[in-house]
Write a structure and sequence with these properties.
Elements lengths: L1 E5 L4 H12 L3 E5 L16 E2 L18 E4 L6 H6 L1 H22 L3 E7 L26 H18 L4 E7 L1 E3 L19 H9 L6 E4 L11 E2 L1 E3 H12 L7 E6 L5 E2 H12 L5 E4 L8 E2 L4 H7 L8 H18 L1
Parallel strand pairs: 1-2, 1-4, 2-3, 4-5, 5-6, 6-11, 7-10, 8-13, 9-14
Antiparallel strand pairs: 9-12
Helix pairs in contact: 1-6, 3-4, 5-7, 5-9, 7-9
The protein binds uridine-5'-diphosphate.
EC number: 5.1.3.2
Subunit structure: Homodimer.
Pfam families: Epimerase (PF01370)
């Protein structure tokens, strides 16, 4: 297939692109490089440095794209709380611009990078409950709200056209794609995610490591998340591409179904890196959900998706290898 990857110079988009190319697809990337990196774009892949708002310049009726994988988005929870307008503009309005182009071009397939956090604290009452696709939605911050709005837009769009769309609701992506062609991994600036921040602290590359809250209603008082290896996440996109159906919008939750508390994550980072990693307790972070753990039974059943690296220690070990590689080249 000929595919457009928006946000393909970013963390997850670049790793999905690597897998699409390996599977024999033809890929073009659109990215404004506000957060992505030009060196994440493989040689020979046409690259359009453009805002998502200008996607119609690339996704034209004549370009002949068979599908779009849409990653271009703002992704920081805390920033979304302080600056919601940015999230409505880039995420919601940007997707409107994409859908206008998709409609005009008659593009048949769209895979969307959604988030498990659209469900908010749904499993808060029963921490053992895993979140299914039909669980109630209750986003706790503008980032998650913007992703939910897009899921709803896609449902409406498919209802009135031949577009086949899939929303993949990621739980917590981590790890890296290690390859002789160069490692791809997480390098957000500023970094906000737990695992890369803990690795920076373990490497002695940042001052203090702050743990945001230890008074939640969980066994050790810290928030619980479901970490999924980014390569397993990427594989689901390729399966989803083959699973789209005209006029239908499907949703799949992607996680391993195992919850790890922030304190447990810190312990595994200590094991993997051998660092002491001192922790400074800080207030709760605005907008944080308490327990977010996926049921991915539907993805296993309907997509035939099987995660190959579900162990947190393997996920963190790959992230650590990438961290050292990235530091070594800068
Ligand atoms: N977290 C933390 N210290 C940090 C970064 C994150 O304690 O420096 C916590 C955060 O409050 C949340 C968990 O780690 O409870 C996962 O946060 P992350 O931003 O990685 O993912 P998300 O919020 O999207 O689940």
């Amino acid at each position: 297939m000929k595919l457009l990857v928006t946000g393909g110079a970013g963390y997850i988009g670049s790793i999905v692109t690597r897998q699409l190319l390996a599977a024999g697809h033809q890929v073009e990337i659109l990215d404004d490089l506000s957060k992505g990196f030009r060196d994440n774009v493989p040689d020979g892949v046409p690259f359009h440095q453009l805002s998502i708002h200008d996607v119609a310049q690339v996704l034209t009726p004549d370009a002949g794209f068979d599908g779009v994988l849409h990653f271009a988005a703002k992704i920081a929870v805390e920033e979304s709380v302080s600056n919601p307008g940015l999230y409505w503009d880039t995420n919601v309005r940007g997707t409107l611009d994409l859908l206008d182009a998709v409609r005009a071009a008659g593009t048949p397939r769209l895979i969307f990078s959604s988030t498990g956090t659209v469900h908010g604290n749904v499993s808060g009452d029963d921490p053992s409950a895993k979140i299914t696709e039909d669980a109630p939605v209750a986003p706790t911050n503008p980032y998650s709200s913007s992703k939910l709005m897009i899921d709803l837009m896609l449902a409406g769009e498919c209802g009135g056209s031949n577009l086949g769309a899939v929303s993949l609701r990621y739980f917590n992506a981590a790890g890296a794609s290690l390859s002789d062609a160069g490692h791809l991994g997480e390098r957000h600036e500023p970094e906000t995610h737990l695992i890369p921040i803990a690795l920076q602290a373990a490497a002695g590359d940042r001052g203090e490591f702050f743990l945001f809250g230890d008074d939640y209603d969980t066994p050790d008082g810290t928030c619980i998340r479901d970490y999924i290896h980014v390569e397993d996440l990427a594989t689901a996109h390729l399966l989803a591409l083959d699973n789209t159906e005209p006029g239908q919008h499907k949703i799949f939750n992607l996680g391993n179904g195992n919850g790890y508390s922030n304190k447990q994550v810190i312990d595994v980072v200590r094991e993997v890196t051998g660092a002491k990693l001192p922790v400074t307790l800080a207030p709760r972070r605005d907008g944080d959900a308490v327990v977010v753990v996926a049921s991915s039974e539907k993805a296993r059943r309907e997509l035939g998706w099987v995660p190959t690296k579900p162990r947190l220690s393997d996920i963190i070990a790959d992230a650590w290898t990438f961290y050292q590689y990235d530091k070594g080249r800068s």
